[in-house]
Amino acid sequence: MDRTTDLQNLCTIIRTVHLEWKLSQRILGDETIMEESILQCPSCNNKNIATIFWGYPSDMSELEKEIDEGKIVIGGCLVTDHDPKWECNSCHHRWGDRDD
Ligand SMILES: [Zn+2]
Q: Residue 76 forms beta bridges with which residues?
């Protein structure tokens, strides 16, 4: 198995885990929304903050509305141990620790 195939497999796993996580957040009364309500950009103090969605969603249409509303940005598939959790919709500063 070459490295490209490994990465593609990894992306598929990440995508699945994140979609499940996202759905579970909705079902469980949604701690994410509570977090967002008190979030503030440490760089420009803007309160219009998006949660960074790591991995690629298989069904973009499901997330399109939230992306349009600035609630989510797609972080891509380069997941490391130091990925930020939030992105400011004003200055695009990223911060926080991805906790999943
Ligand atoms: Zn900002």
A: 54, 55
Report DSSP state, residue 51. Answer: E
Residue 100 belongs to a domain: no
What whole-number distance in Å separates Cα of residue 31 and Cα of residue 70? Answer: 18
- Ligand 1 center–CA 8 separation, angstroms: 33
Distance (Å, whole) CA 100 – CA 97: 9
pLDDT digits (tens, 9 = 90+) for 7-27: 777 777 777 777 777 766 665
- How close is the Cα of 39 to the center of ligand 1, in Å? 11
Per the structure, the complete domain to which residue 46 belongs is given by 3-95
Q: How many domains does the chain have?
A: 1
Q: How far is CA 52 from CA 33, 44, 55, in A?
A: 13, 18, 10
Whether the full predicted model's pTM is greater than 0.85, yes or no, is no
